[in-house]
Write a structure and sequence with these properties.
Blueprint lengths: L2 E4 L9 H16 L3 E4 L13 H12 L22 H13 L3 E4 L3 H7 L29 E4 L5 E6 L3 E6 H4 L3 E4 L7 H11 L4 E5 L6 H10 L6 E5 L2 E2 L15 H6 L4 H12 L10 H5 L12 E2 L5
Parallel strand pairs: 1-2, 8-9, 10-11
Antiparallel strand pairs: 3-4, 4-7, 5-6
Helix pairs in contact: 1-9, 6-7
Amino acid sequence: MVVTRFAPSPTGELHLGGAWTALASWVVARRAGGRFVVRMEDIDGPRTVNGAAEQILDDLRWLGLDWDEGPDVGGPYAPYVQSARSGFYERALDVLREKQQLYPCDCSRAEIGRTASAPHEGDEVVYPGLCRDRDPNRPMKRPPAWRVRVDDRVVHFVDELRGPQTERLDSQVGDFVLKRGDGLFAYQLAVVVDDAAMGITHVIRGDDLLASTARQIFLFETLSLRVPRFHHLPLVVDLGGGRLAKRNPMSTISGLRESGVSAHAIVGKLAFGLGLAGSDKSSSPTDLVEEVRAPCWPRERWRVPERW
């Protein structure tokens, strides 16, 4: 069975980029007669905005999307809120400790920066392994983060839209953090544990997360979990080609609602941009399920319409 999910972070209102991936995930599941899951990724408590989760769910319903499992409807793999799933993440860390693939790191960012390498401007800093072979029972300078020990394997995967991808984690990323020194679990760990536990078969999300995929596949395999298929959609951008600003009311679903734009108008334009419909005429999500044409997924970033 095809199982997809939409996993927003409640750090603000649902914007068009979130609706874009939610609609794509929903249509894939519904056309296959599968399940659609909504999960709130709120593990970064300091960034969570009060009331944002409820507003996101309300906006999704207003657009005409429904879900089989989620924070408000429950399901066999509850809870569907990451802040309530810490026990699952701790158990995954225990598995990695037993495999001797987890170690404490009390390095500061400054210490890492002095010895790390980032060969090209804009590239991620590669962790240089400063604490990899240190005594894990030594006195710590500060509350340690917990890093997973990567090996020299090359991670290969085929993205459904981007095609073949290759990354060697030891030289391109280094041992990466799974739990921060302040006790917060890393996105990389939480998303893997939750996708596996909830039986997600197809991960459909924005291509800003493509760079995380090799790390997640490494964790799936190391924890002996089933690896889903990945599909990274181009991002939704503003009229100037820049990232959407959540403070711009015409970039958020609630802002468009308040301005009088109909749900069907939004769904129709998103569906056309996604290649799920042959025109941008107003339509409901149910209309898209009944479309007989195969999706023609976009290759380029989608600019928000100047007029609705």
